[in-house]
Amino acid sequence: MNTSSNETLPSDETVLLTPEQLARRLNVSRRCLSNWSRDKIIPMVKIGRVCRFDLQKVSAALAQYERAAVTR
Question: Which of 5, 11, 17, 57 could form a disulfide with 22 if both were Cys (CB 3.0 to 4.6 A apart)?
Answer without folding.
Answer: 17
